[in-house]
Amino acid sequence: MSGWVRVCSTAELLPGESRVAWDGDTPILVVNLDGDVHALEDKCSHEDYELSAGAIDGDQVECTLHGARFDLRSGEALCAPAYAPVRKFPVKVEDGAVWTRDDR
């Protein structure tokens, strides 16, 4: 398990905004949902495609490749063609910065 990776300052991740951080080879999509920060692997579980390219609508992100939607809070797949969830990662906000890590 690796250590925490700094994503950005809290001022750079306002509600409704997102960033992609890298923990080694793992891309992590970090999203601020009305002040609650969540992190998911930036990879659709249906096709290996980055979710960060898709639109965020409320608490969901849509994969632009085939339209699969995922819950940003839980990683749950919400519609076909994705059936498996996306891995969720821990997030912490500390000293004015947002942090995440690949905790597998």
UniProtKB/TrEMBL annotation:
It comes from the Bacteria. It comes from Arenimonas terrae. InterPro entries: Rieske_2Fe-2S, Rieske_2Fe-2S_sf. It holds the Pfam family Rieske. Residues 5-100 form the Rieske domain. GO terms for molecular function: 2 iron, 2 sulfur cluster binding; metal ion binding. The lineage of its organism: Bacteria, Pseudomonadati, Pseudomonadota, Gammaproteobacteria, Lysobacterales. PANTHER family: 3-PHENYLPROPIONATE_CINNAMIC ACID DIOXYGENASE FERREDOXIN SUBUNIT, FERREDOXIN-RELATED. Keywords: 2Fe-2S, Iron, Iron-sulfur, Metal-binding. This is Non-heme iron oxygenase ferredoxin subunit.
